[in-house]
Amino acid sequence: MTIDVTVRRTIPVPAEEVAAYAMDWRNDSRWTQGIRRAELTRPADTGGFGTGAEVTRTAYFLRRRIDYVLRVAAYEPPRLLDMVSVAGPMPMHVTYTFAPDPRGTLAAIRVRGGPGGLFRLAAPLLARQVRSSLTRDLRDLERRLTERDGGA
After folding, report:
1. Where does residue 147 rank: exposed (0-12), middle (13-18), buried (19+ CB within 10 A)?
2. pLDDT tens, 60-73?
3. Cα–Cα distance, 137 to 143 (Å, whole number)
4. What proportions of the chain, in percent to the nearest 5, are helix, strand and coil?
5. Long-range contacts of 43-48 (CB under 8 A, 24+ apart)
6. R_g of the chain computed on alpha carbons
7. Based on CB atoms within 10 Å of each CB, which residue in 31, 41, 88, 141 is the most buried?
8. What is the layout of strands, in order, in the sheet containing 104-113?
9. E-strand spans in the chain?
């Protein structure tokens, strides 16, 4: 079974601001569920963060530590960040999109992957957990951005 989960949320903040925060790997642990650490382990060919860069994340999911590396496949700020796993417990493709909306920004996260190993047995549960986690991610992204703008 393949996982293909997309979650969307309208965030009342301009798209450029939402994308700048969400696309900055240094903020991953601040708004992304389960991520305890993120590190730029390979810069883009042009230096810094961009297409070809790799980010190593340490996360906890279903009470298990997961270390994985995502390579940036496409980086088109403020519209798109597309990443594919190059190391980790399962193949994964994560796409972040940000579009202007009359109410702010329509933010979306799509996760696709094929569970491997022990995760294969729990694919239906894993898909539900991914959806729940992504929903909380976008909620937390909104909170972080609106509280920051509100002076909190």
Report:
1. exposed
2. 876 788 899 999 99
3. 10
4. 30, 45, 25
5. 44/72, 44/75
6. 15
7. 141
8. 3-11, 104-113, 92-101, 80-87, 64-76, 54-61, 35-42
9. 3-11, 35-42, 54-61, 64-76, 80-87, 92-101, 104-113
Looking at residue 151, what is its pLDDT? 43
Please give the pLDDT value at position 64.
80
Cβ proximity of 25 and 18 under 8 Å: no
Q: What is the pTM of this model?
A: 0.89
Cβ atoms of 71 and 84 closer than 8 Å: yes
- Residue 44 has a CB neighbour count (10 Å cut-off) of 16
Determine whether 66 is exposed, middle or buried from the number of CB atoms within 10 Å of its CB (0-12, 13-18, 19+): middle
Q: Tokens at residue 115, please?
A: 């569970």
d(CA 152, CA 141): 14
